């Protein structure tokens, strides 16, 4: 009989298998959608040298991400700075057809900054590489959002 491990919803750099395996073992489950949230870069990370991904409550919007089974959250909690930088919380994650919902853990920035902080090129590339499993339209939306933050930085920075 197969034992099921806790579910983890990744929407940032942890969508990348190579980035996540630096932290923990995992089993890929599939992709999912969290409704009434949007992706934002609302915290600065010294490690990543730029803005890092977060989910922000936004009625009518959605965040796509990757679902994994993980053995536990000890290593992920450490990586994400839980509970001070990111806090782990449970969230409803829907399948691509929005027919089935599961409860998964994810991480949300504790002290959100506005305006958003542009991500570094390296971090953005890791995030976009992990997003290749998501819908084409969401990938384009993600790329456009990141590009707009870089443009704003050029004009204001």
From TrEMBL:
Active site per UniProt: 80 (proton acceptor)
UniProt KW Lyase keyword: yes
Keywords: Lyase
InterPro entries: G-Glutamylcylcotransferase (IPR017939), GGCT-like (IPR013024), GGCT-like_sf (IPR036568)
UniProt-annotated binding residues for substrate: 8-13, 123
One annotated GO molecular function: gamma-glutamylcyclotransferase activity
UniProt cross-references to PANTHER family, sorted A to Z: GAMMA-GLUTAMYLCYCLOTRANSFERASE
Protein's recorded name: Uncharacterized conserved domain protein
Organism listed in the record: Anoxybacillus flavithermus (strain DSM 21510 / WK1)
């Amino acid at each position: 009989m197969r034992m099921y491990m806790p579910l983890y919803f990744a929407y940032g750099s942890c969508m990348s298998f190579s980035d996540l395996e630096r932290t923990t073992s995992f089993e890929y489950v599939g992709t999912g959608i969290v409704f009434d949230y949007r992706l934002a870069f609302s915290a600065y990370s010294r490690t990543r040298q730029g803005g890092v991904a977060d989910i922000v409550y936004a009625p009518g919007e959605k965040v796509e991400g990757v679902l994994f089974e993980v053995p536990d959250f000890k290593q992920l909690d450490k990586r994400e700075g839980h509970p001070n930088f990111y806090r782990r919380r449970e969230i409803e994650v829907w399948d691509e057809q929005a027919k089935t919902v599961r409860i998964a853990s994810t991480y949300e920035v504790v002290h959100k900054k506005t305006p958003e902080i542009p991500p570094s090129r390296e971090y953005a590339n890791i995030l976009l590489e992990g997003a290749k499993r998501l819908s084409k339209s969401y990938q384009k939306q993600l790329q456009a959002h990141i590009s707009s933050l870089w443009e704003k930085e050029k004009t204001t920075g």
